[in-house]
Structure formats: C-alpha cells, structure tokens
Amino acid sequence: MRTTCFSLKRRIAVLSETRRYDLTEKTCTIGGMSLNAARHWLSGSEEINAMLLLRRCHSLTRFGPVSIQRHPVAPAVASCAVRLRSNSGGEDQRSYRRAHSPSWRHGLAGLLAGTGTVLAYGLHKHKAEQVDTIRTPTLETTLPFPIFSQEEVTKHRSLEDGVWVTYQGGVYDITEFVAMHPGGNKIMLAAGGAIEPFWALYAVHNQEHVLEMLSEYKVGELSAEDRKKQQAVKSSDPYSSDPERHPVLHINNLKPFNAEPPPEILSDSYITPSAFFFKRNHLPVPPVDPASYQLHVEGLPRGALTLSLEDLKTKFPKHTVTATLQCAGNRRSEMNTVKQVKGLNWGIAAISNATWSGANLRDVLMAAGYGPDVAQWARHVQFEGLDHDVTGSTYGASIPLNKAVSEEGDVLLAYEMNGKELPADHGFPVRVVVPGTVGARNVKWLGKIIVSSEESSSHWQQNDYKGFSPGTDWDTVDFKSAPAIQELPIQSAITTPADGAVVDRSEEEVIVKGYAWSGGGREVVRVDVSLDGGKTWQVAPLRTSDKGQAAEPSPPPGRAWAWKLWEVTAPLPPGAQELEIVCKAVDNSYNMQPDTVPPIWNLRGVLSNAWHRVKVKIREDEEE
Amino acid sequence: MRTTCFSLKRRIAVLSETRRYDLTEKTCTIGGMSLNAARHWLSGSEEINAMLLLRRCHSLTRFGPVSIQRHPVAPAVASCAVRLRSNSGGEDQRSYRRAHSPSWRHGLAGLLAGTGTVLAYGLHKHKAEQVDTIRTPTLETTLPFPIFSQEEVTKHRSLEDGVWVTYQGGVYDITEFVAMHPGGNKIMLAAGGAIEPFWALYAVHNQEHVLEMLSEYKVGELSAEDRKKQQAVKSSDPYSSDPERHPVLHINNLKPFNAEPPPEILSDSYITPSAFFFKRNHLPVPPVDPASYQLHVEGLPRGALTLSLEDLKTKFPKHTVTATLQCAGNRRSEMNTVKQVKGLNWGIAAISNATWSGANLRDVLMAAGYGPDVAQWARHVQFEGLDHDVTGSTYGASIPLNKAVSEEGDVLLAYEMNGKELPADHGFPVRVVVPGTVGARNVKWLGKIIVSSEESSSHWQQNDYKGFSPGTDWDTVDFKSAPAIQELPIQSAITTPADGAVVDRSEEEVIVKGYAWSGGGREVVRVDVSLDGGKTWQVAPLRTSDKGQAAEPSPPPGRAWAWKLWEVTAPLPPGAQELEIVCKAVDNSYNMQPDTVPPIWNLRGVLSNAWHRVKVKIREDEEE
C-alpha cells in the first residue's frame, strides 16, 4: 500500500502539474512527456482508482523525481525514509501550525513577494487536513541522510529530473513544491543550486514557517567539500542600498519595498508629493550612477542606439504630463474579504498623481529609426529595468506599439517627477511613464527599450497582471487566455471618512472626499455619492487642481491622464445611526464601476474597482 | 383668490420654466428677463406664500402670456373662461384617463417620437392629482371663442409673447405646455402657425390623448378667411416614401421608423443581414437620387468641396470594416422596469453587426485640405443628414476630430453594407460609420461634413444622447453638464433563451447564446455566464465568425469594432426549478458591466448595460 501510494502519488502529482503547466504554458511537455502520454500511465479504472487512492493517501508523500529505477538505490531509500520520518513529525508540525495560526495569517498578509504568491502554506495545510481518515504511519527511521556532491545536485534542474536545491548544507528535493511556490516559476532559478541568495533577495522567505516547509523536503546532505565552498560565498542584503522612506507610509512589504500613503493624504493634494506617492518595487532599488547611465534602444533597423542621461535631456524636447499611476492591485484588500487572493494586501491608496517630465518615447524611437517599415512587423515595445535578481534577470514589461508611437499616447521617458529628478524609489534616473496604463508597465530604472513583434516574455507580462473570471482558480487558470492588463478600468474611492469612523450628530454634516480616475485617457465625467448604501445618489463636484487653484484646462479627448478629486458636504440624515457611504465614477465612455466585489473577484486580486463603501457611525449627542 | 391664483400661477410657471431653461440652456432669459429678475416679482415671504398658494391652487390654470395688460381684453377674458370650462370638464377628463389608463400606458410605451419625449400626459395627470384639496370651481361659461386672424396668431412665437398654434381652425395657446412637450424645444418650430404638418411628420401625435390635451389649451378660432387658406394647404405624409420593411421586425415606432429584430436572429449570424439590422430613424427616410447626390465638405481652408457618389467611389480607396452599431437606448426597457424613462422602449436588439465599405473619412478630409494648420483650431467633425423635418432642419451629430482623422479611427463614408449598396433605411446612398461610437453619430443619408471648433449644435448632440446620475430628474437636469455620448461602454446580452422560457428537464441541458461588444475599439476578452443569478460563473467561449467558419484575425489594439458572439451549453442543475441566467462581459481595458439597473438608471434611459438576466423555468417530466 505504501509503495503504491507513493508511486501513484508521484504520478498524480505529475498529472496535476502537467495540467497546471499545460494550462499555463500551453505546452504539454513535462520532461518531454505529453499530457496524454502521462495519462496513459494510468488509464481507465486505474486512473479512477488512483484518484481514490490519492484522496485517501494520508500525507504529503513525495518521491524522488522520475522514478525509482532512474535513481541510485541509496537516495531513493533515503527519500522514502525521510518521507516517513517527516510524516511522523507531521502531527507535531500541524499542531504547531494550529497553535500559531494567527501569526501565520499575519505572516501571510505581509508575505507576498514582488512576484506572484501562492498560498503555499495554505495548500500544505489543506492537503494535511484532507487526509485524516487514515492513520498516519508511525514508522520511524534512523537512516542517515545520503551525501550528495554539488555536481549531483546540479543535475536536478527540471520537473523531469527533479528540482533540488541546497540550504545551509542540506539538500532538498522541492519538485512537488514548485507548483505551490508563491513566486511561481521563479523558484526554478534556484534549481540545482543554493537557495540562500534568493531568500536574501526575497526577504519574505525569512519566516519560520518557510523553513518548516523546506525541512519536509530534505533528501540529503551536501558533501563537506562543497559545503565549504558554498560557505565562502557570503550572501549580502541586496536591499542595503534601498533609500530611506517616509515613516507615514503604510508598508505592505519591506523587501522589495511596497507601501502606500494614508488615504486622506491623496485627497489633500491634487499632485501627490513624491515622498507620499505609493511605492511598488518588484526587486531591490538599483543604485545607478547618472554619469555612466546608459539607455539602450534595440530592435530597430539602424541597430542599437545608446543614450546617456545627458542625451535624453538635451537631444529631445522635454515634455511634461500630469498622470495618475495605479497599481493593478489597488484595493485588493477588498477582494480578500470575499475570498483570499494572492498578492500584496493593498488598501485604496496604491494610486497617486504626479507631474512627470522627460523625452517622448515616440521621439526617441523615431531617432532610433522607427518608421512605417517597422510598423509593418512591430507590435510591442518592451522595457527592461535595471533592477534585477541574483541571476541578473531584470524586471520587464511591454506596451502595445501604437500606444508607444502615437502622438497622442504621451508616453514619456521621464527623468523628473514633480519638478525634481526622479527619486530612487520611482526609477532614478529614468523611468517610463505610460499614461492611462497600469503601473506595472511604467518600468522604473529603465535600462533597455526593445521594439518587437512580441510582448515582453517577463513573468510580470505573461503570468501575472492579468484578470480572470471569479470562477477561475489556481487549478484551472490559463494565463495565456487573458490579455496582459494595459489600460485600467474606471475607478474611484472614498479617502475620507475612513471606514468605521464616527461622526458626532452635533456636526450636522459629513464631508466626503475621494479620487476618481479611468485608464486609457478616458476622462472622469461624474462621480455619484450615496449615503444610504446606493439607494439614492448625489453628484459630487469634481476638481482638477488644488482648492482655490485654477482648474487645469480640459484635456484633449482620449488624453485625460490625471485623476479628479471630489468632495461633497452632506447633512447627516435625521434618525440615521449609521451611514453607508458609497461612491461610483463614470468616465466619458460611460463605463461605470461594478456594484459589488464578488462578481469581479479574481485569484490574483487585481482590478478591484467595485463601488467603494465605507460605514460611518453617527454618535448622538449625550443627554445632560 | 382666483385671480391671485392665476396671477401667481403665471409667475410661478415662468419661474419654473425659467429654472428649467436656465438649467437646460444656461441662459436665464425668458422674454429677456433674468432668473433673478423673475424672482424679484415674488421675493421673501411673498415667494413662499406664492408657493403655498400654488400648491393649493386647484387646476391647470393658465393665463395669457406676459400679462393681462398687454392683451386685448376679449382674448384674456375668453382665456379665463376657457380655463374654467376646461376645469369643470377636468373631472370627466380625469375619470376618462383613469378608465383608460392601461391604453394610455400602452400608448406611452409606443409614444416616443424621434426626438426626446417628456411624459407630458403624466405631468398633466400629476398636476391634476396634486390639487384635490380644494373644490373645483363649477362656473360654466357660454362665451363664444374669440376670432383671431392668422396675422394675430403669428405674433405669438415665443415664451414671452406666448406660443400659439392652430389646429383644424382652432387657436391654441400652448405656452405652458412647451416645457412639457415630449419633443422638447422642437415644438417651437410650430409656434405661430399650423401644427398639422408637424403632426404628419411625427405621427406619434395621432393619438386620442394628444388631441385631448390640446383641447385644454384652446383660446380662440381662426378667422374664416384664414381657415380657408389653410385648408388649401394639404398635409401630405412625409413617410410615404419610406421603404418596405421585413415583417419580422418588432416595431417600436412606425413614423419615424424604429424597429429591432427578434434577439435570437442576432446570435444566428455573426454578420446581421441588412433586412434584420435594427432600424433607428429620427425623421422620414429621404429619397435620394444617386445620380445627383452631392456630399459637401466644409470648414477647411481650401473652401467647400463637393463630391458626387461617383467621386467617393472612384477618387478614394475603398475600405471595408466590420463594425457593430448600437443605439444608445438599447435595453432601455430594462430601465423602464425600475422607473419610467423617456425614449423608445428598446429590447436587447437595438444592436447589430455589419460589414461596411466606403471611403475613409480621413482620406476625404485630407483631400479637402485638412492638415496640421486645421488641427490647431478644429476639434470636431459635424455631420448633417439629408433627412429633415418640415422646416428643413436636418438630423445632425458630430464626433471628436481625433477620431475622424486618426489612421486608426477607421471612420468610413460608407456606400455599401454587407457587400451591397446601402439600403434606404441605412442611409442610401452614403452614411457615416464611426466604429466604436454610439449609433446616433453614424449619420445616415449624409449631406454635409463640417470641420469645426464646435460640436454639432443639433438637438441630438446637445440635449439628447447624454447620460446622467440616477438622482437627476427633469427638473434638475442640465444637459450641458454631461458629455455627448460617443464611445459606448461594455455591453452583453442573452439572445436565447428568452426571459420566461421553459426548458424540459428531459433536455438535460440548456444552451445559452448571446452577444458582447464594447465601444472605442476595446475588444471583448471574456464573457462570464451564471445560471444561478450571479453566484457562480463560467466562462463562455467567444467567436468572431459564424460557426464552422474561420475566426477573423485578431484586430489591432484599439480597433476591435465588431462584436463577439458566445454560447455555452450547461447541464440543468439537479433540483433547480428555475434558472436565473446572467451574463456579463469584460473588455480589454477590463471594464465590466455594472451588476444592476437602478444605480445606472437615467432619465433618458440610455447606456443600459447592467448584467443581462433572463429567468427560465425547468419543467419536470410528467409522471406516468
């Protein structure tokens, strides 16, 4: 039974991974084996039996990759032994988890590295809870871990050959964990090598439960000689050169740095001061020397063009655009109240408005040789940041070519924000500003521009920042089936009062403030505000400047890049004990915000733009 | 009391009209008097008293325009007398209305001339019902109607001088009715003259309750001489040259012709056959001789350019675009279920998809002298149709200049629809096709193109086809406060099964079909379908061609002009007695449809794009 279970488990795992990768990558090859081939291992009733067995199989049973036959006996046996040992310890671990559940949840909220995150720990837990119908085997083993050379470890760099990593001298077969990894495929970068540098990069891993999970996958020890070599390579903190930040920011993740200002700051200033502008980094802030900075433009017929910062500033006209940037995950926390999603738990302030100055991307592309001939084949403009992980892999994204080259696209290679050089957190010395487009495409610390027939192949373009149906889960999601988010939908939120605020009856009125913005240059034309949960509505006056300042001139059609702020002062309804204040905005394509969150819920928690609602209590004046 | 009441009534009516016109037109001049000046008539407590008196005043009291002093005594007295007589008959009329309420409602649903319609009859009724606290005076009069010459009638052509019309020899002072007229200001065209030709044009007036309303405003008789002259002018039916239509169409209004196909026809054919393509005419179909047809292009520095049909076909490249057109009022009937709106009671089929061929508007504008110099000052391109009312006033609309001149705007001067010359109902010989833009701007029977710094001044651009907050009513609406609808928001609907359909349990599954489309060239990327009212969702496969045909190539970004059809086959949920089938679509800006109708309700019933819902009963198999 145990062997069967292991074996079936392995096969099912492959099947399950196959389906997963089939959907994600549209390739059915796991180790060169097609999905159908994998299914053939277990056909007909055998497959059903296998599924039933799997369901009853009572632990996170793993096995060496590929099959017993292809492994030296010793590791295979060791693997079994380890498995059983970790099973026996499983109860303790689960008890531990239960006891520490709140801190685990807390940890999760802050988890969320720059890349996608799966509720890995949750999946673990779920699996563990599924299997309580059969008693856990109690066989203990005292077999020592086998010793592997680094060379042996390095052979395991794929799902077919197994995915092994080392950590502090231990060897871990994490093949099965790959599908559960919060950071998605990124984990494969560590395959066959030491995991420490990645954990230093993605500091989210420095948590007890992560080590705990890893320990379950131990299959051996690294040879003493290789261990010594490894220790010579010190890991340093790649975030050590990150800039200082304003303490008022609410930090969603420290490394990489992700933070938003208190919402009321947003409506206090039409232009968000740079220090308060929300920060959304995917990697450490790269230190860039402006004197030696180079921007490479590639993919055009004249060959690569390299520009210095000075070139950008002096060879191209300087354009200034006021544009609002919004993270795709803004207001994700509201989706989490429906059902847990993966991603940073942003409130309503992952959006800000600034004035950006720089060269027009269009002008730079023209200078680099863009013309009608290129328009024949090119479809996208890719950007690469100078921010990178330990393998040198950089942040990347792309936008459609027509946005990049349109005279009305207003895409900037910005070197100024709010009239000063870009702050480090916002892409010093040069970033892309793609007005009307999701923050993720506004690549910071810009290093390279590539005109291409293809979208960026980066994780963030292909397997992140996409929207799905509420019925789509991590087992069924096919990232190829959805377009990369570019223009964002209509959005608005109430910055003040805060949810749960209390207003004294004696104040007689409530002042409600907020922001409204739409992607694609669509101008916000109306904001409706309700104090009774959406039964009745009033229209909020909009403004495009600070109070008392002259309004900005109306933007040309399709080029309304900046948000509008709004404010209503409404008398407290007599008799009401609580207000449910709601706002919803309308843009000039008359798109409206959806009423509620559940029907737009999606597994990644992006595009959260339902009506924003805050409840406010009215405190009656105390009787004498 | 009566005199006071009359006098106050007149003043209040002016005030109320002033406010109305102030909001609508941003001018405060009623008869050269500013709103504040009018208020000064009744200031402070006098105004409040007047309001109270008005509220208690017990009839639709009218008075001759301006003041008694400015009228000959006879008409003024007659006017009073008529008023009283009609008051005394008021009860009968109200009883009649109540008794005929259903037919009235039915009449209203079909009312709706080409221009905007106010619930005039409803306003009458409302006023009548407000005043039942004081007994109706019963004074009868036998005074004969005074006799007026046509010359005298013709003097009354403004709100200041009074608005008089003649009908079958009667003279009517309709000053007070102007603000209630379903067709808005258009009624002023008839001021001072005979109303028959207009009623022939807008055949909606040929209803009993319209005559009934008119009779209340009678103030005199036309002189025998002028009456004879008038009778010599026969009114002819301007719709006599309208084309034959397919009898399957559901007619919402006959003159002008407005009709939609049965919804299931839409999803049966990716390209809607022209005969079934929804028809939305604002005026009679103008008969146009293609040999003498002329298109005038004005507003450009080289002076006017005149093109024949042959010119259009031979001097410019022929472009073909598949584009969906949708009426702003599509799905208005769903808004009517929330609260009555004004407008044709469209179902879900005021949308269709066709292939259009013609010259690019851009090419024609270039040929006419458009260039960067024009771009400096021009902002809009106006279109005038050859369809006109009895005064010669034509249908008109405009679009933003950037849409018109963009290479990616794909605006056509189309002379073919689905591979054949345009049918008469669709604009023969030439119409504008503005892909991604509300039907109303796709001007048919195109006569003139004007490049301008201003939008079209037509009623349909300025005081119609705009969206408002659900809290905005006809007393508070300011048409200047909302932008003219251009791009439409994301839309989808279920074409089959129909609401109320019955499915036999033995069928085991239900096939759900529909369409999805978004304005502005935004591609529909997903349609979610629910069988349980929106609790759970599945993704519907989309198609861009007829079944079995190769899919159209994916459109360039921002140029997805054609709808997508979708279909799901879903097993009948066990135990369910009724399904609430819901669909909602998402475009590539990730805009979603709002959940429900009430929060997007607007007084004109446009932009109705909430989730579409149909209820289907499941009939259990009969027991033997």
Characterise the protein shown here.
Chains A, B: Pathway: Energy metabolism; sulfur metabolism; Sulfur metabolism. Chains A, B: Its cofactor is heme b; Mo-molybdopterin. The structure is a homodimer of 624-residue chains. Chain A starts with a helix and ends in a 5-residue tail after the last strand. In chain A, strand 2 and strand 3 form a beta hairpin. A five-stranded mixed β-sheet of chain A has the order 1-5-4-3-2. By secondary structure, chain A is α+β, with helices and mostly antiparallel strands. In chain A, 25% of the residues lie in helices and 23% in strands. Chain A is globular and about 80 Å long. Chains A and B meet through strand 22 and strand 23 of A and strand 22 and strand 23 of B.
